[in-house]
Fold each of these.
Amino acid sequence: MKATIAVLSGDGIGPEVTSQAIIVLQKIAAKYGHDFIFNEAPMGGIAIDQFGDPCPDSTIRACEAADAILLGAVGGPKWSDPTAPVRPEQGLLKVRKHFDLFANLRPVKAYPALAQHTPLRPELLEGVDLLFVRELTGGIYFGPRQEQGDGDTAYDTELYTVPEVERVAQVAFRAAQGRRKKLTSVDKANVMASMRLWRRTVVKVHEDYPDVELDHVLVDACTMYLVTRPASFDVLVASNMFGDILSDETSVLAGSLGMLPSASLGSATFGLYEPIHGSAPDIAGQGKANPIGTILSAALLLRYSLGLEAEAKTVEDAVDAALNSGARTADIVARGASFISTTEMTQAIVSNL
Ligand code: NAD
């Protein structure tokens, strides 16, 4: 297969981790006879410095010409003034909106070898393997809002339409069909009208996926269940804000922010793939960044945008094997123990491909 991948490395550790995912993708291409072309384009703070725009039109065009986007991270102290007219994160929002990437998928696995890095008891982490699906382009982050002139009143509005809920529910049901066939829909239907619409719509979409078991959990209870019985979940689907908060909570189950991948998808196969962490300015340029979140994001790219399931699984298995053989970057090492660099972790993974 021939595929073009737009690479938006961004700022801080962004280029350090995307370069490692490219090495893994090149090895996969060689192993399975594919031809992957990588097109770098500026994004985030570096694009502000060069073009005065965190996502210039040339970057959008490079993404339009690609089959998928691999992104590192954007932002850093240099561009962190909240009153600045242009900020790095605006570039990310522009790409999500431009390509209508309405579903954000975050798979979370607990690695037994890393249990000591989580605040939970090891027995609670046994068998944790869940997929969080967050609605990404609607809800309160995009609803009508107002900051009144006198500064004493402000509001944001949670607003959902049936088609918005339907399409993200379909992504979640389809994902559940490919996994353990369980979907948990998170809402606040006991209090909010928008969440009653959410629940009603998810129930209706369920009619098309009778092989998937569906249950509903209120968001407040869900925060508790995610830490008291995380292994009971297969796929979860939630609104933009609830998903934002809960998916960060689930990230502690994996042991480090550096471990977790994500995929942002629209209605076709095109998608944006990035680790869930930021640009980590505190460790940038030191060879300490854990590349696993980005390498696993590349695996999701193979699976969802290129339809290469066997190749995706090969990458995920190689990450498991590297961890089982004791490979540890600084963020996942026991206190005082020695650790390997970003590139050495990639080599440990590549040697298991
Ligand atoms: P961060 O995720 O960058 O870092 C939080 C902590 O986790 C830091 O101690 C960092 O060293 C560590 N960490 C993160 N990724 C790691 C990795 N791969 N390996 C090892 N350790 C890792 O969050 P922050 O410090 O709050 O934000 C830094 C900058 O990143 C800010 O400018 C923020 O706006 C931006 N940010 C960008 C994105 C994105 O591009 N999607 C997401 C979150 C934050």
Note: The chain has a mean pLDDT of 95.
Amino acid sequence: MKFPVFQIFLTGFLLFLLTSCSPKKSVSVGLSDWKFKTGDDMEWSDPSFNDSDWENIKVEHTWDEYGYSDYDGYAWYRISFVLPSSLKEKSAYQGDLIIELGKVDDIDQTYLNGVLIGQNGETLDLSDTAGLRFEQIPGGWAKFRIYNLSTDDKRIKWDQENVIAVRVWDRGGLGGIYDAHPVIRMEGLSDYVQLDINSTSFSIQNQTNFNKVIRLVNSSDDFSFEGVLSVSLMDRFTNDKIFKEKLKIKLEPNSEKEQLISFQTEPGRNCSITYSYTEIKSGEKIIFTESLPYILTPPVPDKARINGPVVYGARPGHPFLYKIPVSGEKPITYSASGLPAGLNLDSKTGIITGKAMKKGIYKALLKAENKHGINEKEFTIKIGKKITITPPMGWNSWNCWGLSVSDEKIRSSADEMIRSGLADHGFSYINIDDGWESAERLPNGKITGNEKFPDFPALSDYVHSLGLKLGIYSSPGPLTCGGYLGSYRHEFMDAKTWSEWGVDYLKYDWCSYGEIAKNRSLPELKKPYFLMRKALDGVNRDIVYSLCQYGMGNVWEWGNEVGAELWRTTGDITDTWSSLKGIGFRQAVVAPFAGPGSWNDPDMLVLGRVGWSDNLHPTRLTPDEQYTHISLWALLAAPLLLGNDMAKLDDFTLSLLTNDEVLAVNQDPLGRQANRVYDENDIQYWLKELADGSLALGIFNLNEGVKNARLNISDLVLNGTYAIRDLWRQKDLGRFNDGMDVTLPGHGVLLVKLSEVK
Ligand code: GAL
């Protein structure tokens, strides 16, 4: 069979055709109309208490939205309802009764008929100034409160009136029950069986063959389940059901089954996948949908190809380190002519080291050769004041490991940068974010690494031996945002220490400097950054200076003045569409301030497995949102700093990061940042001038659904005929003088290059 083909390989189970199976109605009682009163009285837990004069309240949102804005302290919610015994009789599994409350900001005590049945959060004593310890609730206050009771629990009154009373304590910000559609229900399938589609990613061959292992986990001690796993694929553009396949799976108590899902589609086909598991006896179902990570980047050729920027800057007399990024089959032999005096190339590793003493512009010619052929590239080395003449590319530990970063994780990330081939496309920085610092300075005031970082010089030697560069993090305040030691009053000493360690990049994060600054005036905002610039100027190393102060005081207007190479323009990014959209599409205002060696930083990439801790998950961005992310960051000439677990790079994420035509837009030597030139009906055009006179254009669809749009050349304030090339697909689309029609996936993009045909 040609496309589409879909197969599920059965491991010991028979293929099973689902005969029609009518699911039983879910057995639950909704709890929507609550009574509410601020204050605190333990009598309010009593079922016989008369609450008829209390306010009526809903619980979809915090109490602030229902007229109790900024209320802090105790408040009570009450609801009465009849619990029919038919609930347990109809239940397929005869398990526990479950009370689902919703989230509670901050702490709750929940009573059924006057008896405490559950509590989340430690202290309910308002006078306790140590106060709110929501971190003692695993998952924080945003944890869904779910309480279980056995059906023969004496606190439950079957077929009679029951009262739930919730005592809530809140301090600061919003308060009360929220995000809630509370129900009382009998345990159902999803309480026992988890359908895990996120532990592994798709492995993808030739853009067409998809394989992934999903897991079905039965955590019940008592029940076994017989059900049907169904996987179906639907084309996003045509809504065609491409395939649906079903198989019968039996789950014994406390067991799990892995299932290989395997199918083919046409290259680049944009599909959604629905997974469901339906228990045969009860008809209960668990269901998940995800988008197929379709690859557009063509396979990287076997022939040696020199990637990366065409221009590179370093300061005279400072240690020089540049690994020529070359893709293609290894081994590769490297050579170069025209390098500045003092620099040497290792012909086996492609790493250029040494010191160039004389300022100047050097036109070098790089050569790379493997068994498939030779590739040459002109490479300009500018020995002078400017470094990071093109935006830095690399990895930073924060979005992935958060404060749990360690020497070992840094080394393994550097190894993976090489092994994955990302270094062959220009990724070179390995940056340690917060969490490396010791609790106290040495008696002489010198900072050291904590127990997770025993030996910085050895670590940087290791990273440098791979041809990669090492970054570090600090704050101008006494403490970093993670509560570690900052550089306040130790700026010169720290710069010297980092230089001795071999650090190549510093992220300098405002954090607790807020307590030192007299106010938020421009001189106060600039002061600590001038100081560290001075300190960095005193060392004999190129250390990229990256400001992080979330855009305060329009930092883009003066980042250059304080001598930074880049500056964060926003707060922290996270792996959701609203965060990506909120940050990425607000960068038009900062566009004029970008240029070679001066970059706006809309924060790091949220691709691959991220998590800000040891608990990682696949990015919550859909594949189309990820195309948007990289396309926009390329157009914005933003630093491309990955923030994912490098050991778990999947094929799709790699394809997003190894498209050299897309990366070339980011690394273009003209250094312009794209500007928004069109914005209607949530279709936006972002246009970036490139050094060769051509233009890179992203057409973004910020709508949820598929949209047709017409790209009018005149909307771009252009005349003439243009050759248009699709950069993700690396394919010429033709010559156009009026425009072309495009179809854009929801939250997706078409990234093209327009070259005028004279
Ligand atoms: C934040 C910063 C993050 C990360 C974190 C570390 O202020 O924006 O990117 O560096 O601090 O504590």
Note: Residues 398, 433-434, 480-482, 509, 511, 548, 572 surround beta-D-galactopyranose (CB under 6 Å).
Amino acid sequence: MAATLFTNIRQLVNIREEDQLLRGKALAYLPVLKNAYLMVEDGIIAAYGLMDEMPESLTVVEEIVDASGQMILPCWCDSHTHLVFAASREEEFVDKIKGLSYAEIAARGGGILNSAKKLNDTSESELIRLAWNRIQELIRMGTGAVEIKSGYGLSVEGELKMLRVIKKLKETSPIPVKATFLGAHSYPPAYKDNHSGYIDLIKNEMLPVIAEEELADYIDVFCETGFFSKEETIDICKAGMAHGLIPKIHANQLHLSGGVQAGVELGALSVDHLETMDEEAIRLLAASNTIGTLLPTAAFFLRMPFQPARQLIDAGTAIALASDFNPGSSPSGNMNLVIAMSCIQMKMLPEEAINAATVNGAFAMGLQDSLGSITVGKKANLILTKPIPSLAYLPYAFGSSNIDRVMIAGEWA
Ligand code: NIG
Ligand code: FE
């Protein structure tokens, strides 16, 4: 039996007997065990406790890791990414530095349409290779589960190709992958003046095949001024729901788009982004079961105001944190940076940020039964930090790599 015993762990972080979606004051409570042991068996968390109470019988294992001075955390659960893409877009990044706006870049064929063109010209195997390398990089940075969206196809073939790539990643990736259909990410040029035609394509040509081939878990819409309205979002999500997909919506990124209202009305699992919120949207979301997923690196990269995390948390919203890893608005999937930015720029407490990136992140991708906390029976996807003085040191020392090693399903990554 493959087993690893960790001894002398300075802090074993986020130990929970059962998981609940965390909101309000509960988000700031991060249960830890100091001077602890942790036993991993066959890829699963088998036991943990205080060093003083460690049964002698546990020490007959293949591998004993003395974690003196080090912390162990559950891996980050990144519930919002677009990590299948054909090429980076640093030329737009430079154009923006020179003063071009998002709209001007889009008008030049940049933005999402730029990625869509490149993706449609790239083979399935090349997309798999590129995405695989990105997942490997994320794992080294402590990510132990990832959601991936389509949305750079914007054609029947392109969207299905992307989702088949994600399905392949699901089957082969060492970390759990969830798939989201985001056909409604933008309008392809041929449907620029025929929005209802493209929405019909999504509903009649894409969704039935996606359901038939079981290509997606979730349905997403970019609910945004100039993209998909609140009504169109509801219409598309309902069509997805009729095929068994659960909504997770891009909401309120650039404008008060009605995305939060749509998500709450639909009972969406999450509404994501939330840079642009008013009191009504905050109140509605806080009173709902829908998770508010904040993507601070996207706000940072686009030089936008950060999400109002404090108001959201204080109103009682269940907050998750995710990377939004994509070539246009967050060319980084580094969750350590996401956590640091949440503390530095949005005034989240380190405990809140860690909970939002683990327990609540797992909930935001339906993986709360197997990931997101140190719980007996859950998958041993673990971060072993370097020796660090405290948990707050993680977001504080934001430019350092504080991770020593990552374990995925009981194996060193
Ligand atoms: O989540 N906002 C919409 N979609 C992506 C950006 C897509 C792109 O620019 O390629 C996002 O930020
Ligand atoms: Fe996104």
Note: DSSP finds 15 helices and 16 strands in the chain.
Amino acid sequence: MSTELRAVRGMNDILPDEAARWEALEETLRTWLRSYGYRNIRTPLVEATALFRRAIGEATDIVEKEMYSFEDSLNGEHLTLRPEATASTVRAALEHSLLYAGPQRVYYLGPMFRHERPQKGRYRQFHQVGAEALGYAGPDVDAEMLLMCHRLWKLLGLADIQLELNSLGSLDERKDHRTALIAYLQSRAADLDEDGRRRMHTNPLRVLDSKNPAMKPVIDGAPVLATYLRDASLRHFAAIQQVLREAAIPFRINPRLVRGLDYYNLTVFEWITDRLGAQGTVCGGGRYDGLFEQLGGKPQPACGWALGIERLLALLELNRQSQAIPQATVYLVNHGAGAQRAAFRVAEALRDQGLSVLQHSGGGSFKAQMKRADACGASVAVILGEDELAAGEASVKPLRVLQDQFRVTERSLAEAVRKFAGGH
Ligand code: ATP
Ligand code: MG
């Protein structure tokens, strides 16, 4: 086939077998978003170039080198294929006075375009799902967004996505930091790469976002923004962390996290994994209280995130490959001497009901047994302890769906377990 009739480099066809996985994921995403009250918004794929220049910022990777911009050959308008959808969402909210009736939670899902070097996990047409909480000052809504993402990883069975968090403070605080940062970068000018030297004055914070490994020593020595934050910003940041701790969601504060777009303030975060090589950021977001005003509207606080669908699918695919074919439906965990003996009876009774059971043997702690249960691919762990035995009951812990452990009588155990059989 002649090369000019192939798909454009970095833009992929998604054929029916693969598209089926996309549809299934999109369905899960929509249900999950709705369960937090987010409603769909759809904006055009093409916007005036000026929108992205104003919203994202001139001295950013996206605006400097990644935008597909062109002149409308009919009327000469400067247009751009959207590289992200926050700017479009805010534009639409302003244009249609969407916040007139109060704050809004909205989400979008669709293709974005960036002229990058194509590689695994990085394409020129890629897809994002994203949510924007418009008109909310936080920190409650910021925290809710993090809980929400965490729930998605659990729903999808993705265990190793880590949260990195930072606060960029207010405009004033950033100004003070900026002065110190420029002075520092000037003193290290000889060690900066070309981008760094150019951005040192226009957008020094962005220099810290450089992916060039040679820049790392310079970045490591730079003044840290966190030390410039004052009371209100610190309180906002602390409140988010408190919600995370109460929800037992682990996180790491990364003082170097600045994100690649100009519009962020206060909260910024990324969810990252080391299973996708260099393209390890699955989801990124933060607060952008200045954007409405920057686009000519009345100031409105807002917060949002965007998640790369291709990267999410790549993670799901890795999981699928590494998941052992389940050895049995039930893994029977026991602790206590009495429970160990009772386990034989319970296992045989479950097998009588047509269920496959892997009975733990060889001793070991409760924790070690639960690990085995997970590793063998079983749908549920059935737990027999002294407590359960005394009550003539067993505990059931579903292993492949998001549901808490619960207790049932021995007699209704088979029926309870069967609900989860083959659920993966
Ligand atoms: P990266 O650091 O990987 O370039 P980014 O900071 O440019 O990401 P954002 O603009 O925050 O990314 O977009 C949010 C998410 O969209 C990313 O975390 C990633 O999952 C996905 N994404 C961004 N650019 C691409 C791309 N070119 N191809 C595939 N997915 C992408
Ligand atoms: Mg990028």
Note: Residues 84, 114, 116, 121-123, 126, 128, 260, 279, 281-284, 306, 308, 310-311 surround adenosine-5'-triphosphate (ligand 1) (CB under 6 Å).
